[in-house]
Design brief:
Layout: E1 2-6, H1 10-21, E2 25-29, E3 41-44, E4 47-50, H2 60-67, E5 79-82, E6 84-89, E7 95-99, H3 102-112, H4 117-139, H5 146-149, H6 152-161, H7 170-178, H8 181-188, H9 208-213, E8 217-220, H10 225-237, E9 241-243, E10 250-256, E11 259-267, E12 270-273, E13 276-279, H11 283-290, H12 300-311, E14 316-324, E15 334-337, H13 342-350, E16 364-367, E17 382-390, H14 398-417, E18 425-431, H15 433-440, H16 455-459, E19 472-474, H17 485-502
Parallel strand pairs: 1-2, 1-13, 2-9, 6-15, 13-19
Antiparallel strand pairs: 3-4, 5-8, 6-7, 10-11, 11-12, 14-17, 14-18, 15-16, 16-17
């Protein structure tokens, strides 16, 4: 059976591996010159940067891809555990380390914030139970509906333990448990892990914090790019064929009785036939660009959903890559410099302010991979990945915004480091939502497809099997179960299961 995968992002790579292990002839078409999608890297002289994601969680999902093929994952990729989730900086100079060990974290929070160890332990146990109850159901299903999510088991747990709080927001749950505004801000931030606003996202998403703080934060040896490298190497060993610098322009379909079925794909004027097609592209662009000749025949519900996905996009990112000519003992691997008005900052990002600007006091994330991978920067120097959460691309003047953002970041960070930061940036590159959209064909450069600012968006995404085109499947961050490396890996697993079931015995 021949299967074509469109896009060599993490979801596409993982889908190709799983399908090759099932005996499929797999071809992967990628518009860019290399694999990885948003997982990529860049160099500025002797400085190396992971240009996309900067944190690895749930590494067992990566290991699983090798184990099902009877391979030793450690022959392909290795991980270092990171003891700190991040170092938190506040505008008045307060600095707090946030540990990935629960008992250490409890002591840290009781020392620095107005909360008892008992209350902090109660909150961490709450998010742990929430994750343990919901994650397996969420990750192991091909799609969710509200009725299936709130099954008898879920409702029983919700009533008995108060674990599921669908009518609360992430912020309201955190404020009720944690009380201290700065501690609340630290835990509200985890909503940004799927590009959402904690003041609107449903309270169940507080479980995201458990993934990092309870199950651990990791860095692959060689950087996040090592994940893409390992999957690509393994896929090639399995006989997967990669065709780079080749853009798919159309999914060719045929009508069998009243059913639209895939027939193949077209790149330029060349058609390649396939029994199944897996799209690792943004789901809305797959339907509107690659299936535009069939689009009129699709039901109104799909067209309505596409409008919703595109108008309710997740946040995007403005990223600077700074080559620094010195090291900073004040920083750890992951660092967060918080805004003094978090709610207003999220409003600025998600309410689509018409001005071409960043928030006046932005929250700044600084990742320094050279603190754990010393070869990423020259001795005595550091590589800074500096990120702001921003709105998706709507035609803004991103070069002007980047210039303004750099000045604001330098002004914000310099007092914490007791120096004028500008003097120590010896080289720079930057990435905007416009760049992300162009390189990865994600609508507006949104990092996670649609946002999760409603319970519907949070729990119900397009399924991994197309209800409208037989033989078409979806993986990646714009579909179930969501964005980020672990969920993209989970989507690939669902795709393989769905294809295996659908073509069994054929």
């Amino acid at each position: 059976m021949k299967t074509i995968v469109i896009g060599a992002g993490i979801g596409g790579l993982a889908s190709a591996i799983r399908l090759a292990l099932l005996g499929h002839e797999v071809e992967v078409y990628e518009a860019q010159a290399t694999y990885g999608g948003k997982v990529t890297e860049l160099s500025l002289g002797k400085y190396r940067f992971d240009a996309g994601p900067s944190l690895c969680t749930l590494p067992h999902l990566i290991d699983e891809l090798f184990l099902i093929g009877n391979k030793n994952p450690r022959e392909y990729i290795n991980f270092d555990s990171i003891p700190l989730s991040h170092r938190a900086f506040f505008n008045d100079g307060q600095t707090v380390d946030i540990s990935t060990d629960f008992e250490t974290l409890i002591a840290q929070c009781a020392e620095h914030f107005t909360i008892s160890q008992t209350r902090m332990r109660k909150y961490l146990n709450f998010i742990r139970r929430q994750y343990q109850l919901t994650a397996p159901h969420f990750l192991d299903s091909d799609s969710l509906t509200l009725s299936s999510f709130f099954s008898a088991k879920m409702l029983y747990a919700a009533l008995r333990y108060g674990i599921i709080k669908p009518l609360s927001t992430v912020h309201s749950v955190n404020a009720r448990y944690l009380q201290d505004p700065r501690l609340v801000q630290i835990f509200d931030r985890f909503a940004t892990y799927n590009g959402s606003n904690p003041y609107r996202a449903p309270g169940i998403l507080t479980l995201i914090a458990y993934v990092e703080l309870g199950l651990g934060a990791y860095m692959p040896k060689g950087g996040i790019i090592a994940i893409a490298n390992a999957l690509y190497t393994y896929a090639c060993e399995l006989g997967v064929r990669f065709i780079f610098n080749t853009k798919i322009h159309r999914i060719v379909t045929k009508k069998v009785s009243s059913t639209i079925c895939v027939q193949g794909v077209c790149s330029d004027d060349t058609m390649v036939c396939a029994d199944a097609i897996v799209s690792n592209m943004d789901v809305s662009l797959t339907y509107t660009l690659l299936l535009k000749e069939d689009f009129a025949r699709f039901p109104f519900r799909l067209k309505k959903d596409i409008r919703r996905w595109q108008t309710q996009a997740s946040s995007s990112a403005l990223v600077f890559y700074w080559a620094m000519n010195r090291s900073y003992k004040q920083l750890d691997v992951h660092n967060i410099f918080f805004s003094s008005d978090y709610k207003a900052e999220f409003s600025h990002v998600f309410d689509f302010h018409p001005t071409d600007s960043v928030f006046h006091d932005p929250t700044v994330y600084v990742h320094v991979s050279s603190k754990i991978n010393s070869e990423d920067a020259p001795k005595g120097c550091e590589n800074w990945f500096v990120m702001l959460n921003v709105a998706s691309d709507r035609g803004q003047d991103w070069d002007s915004i980047a210039q303004d953002a750099r000045a604001r970041i330098v002004t914000k960070l310099s007092p914490h480091l007791d120096l004028t930061l500008d003097k120590h940036i010896v080289d720079q590159a930057y990435l905007t939502p416009r760049d992300i959209a162009g390189r990865t064909l994600s609508a507006g450069g949104a990092l996670y497809g649609s946002n999760s600012n409603t319970i519907r968006n949070a729990l119900i995404r397009h399924p991994n099997t197309s209800p409208y085109v037989k033989g078409l499947f979806f993986c990646g961050g714009s579909v179930h179960p969501g964005g980020g490396i672990p969920l993209c890996l989970a989507s690939a697993k669902r795709v393989a299961h769905a294809i295996s079931r659908g073509y069994q015995g054929q």
